[in-house]
Amino acid sequence: MNWTQFLISIAAAYLFYYVLNVLYDLFRAGGNGQTETDQDELVFSEENTAQPVGEETADPAEAAPTRQVISSGPLQSTGAVSLKQLFSLAQSDLIECTKAIPY
Question: Which of 43, 57, 73, 87 is most buried, with most CB under 10 Å away?
Answer without folding.
Answer: 87
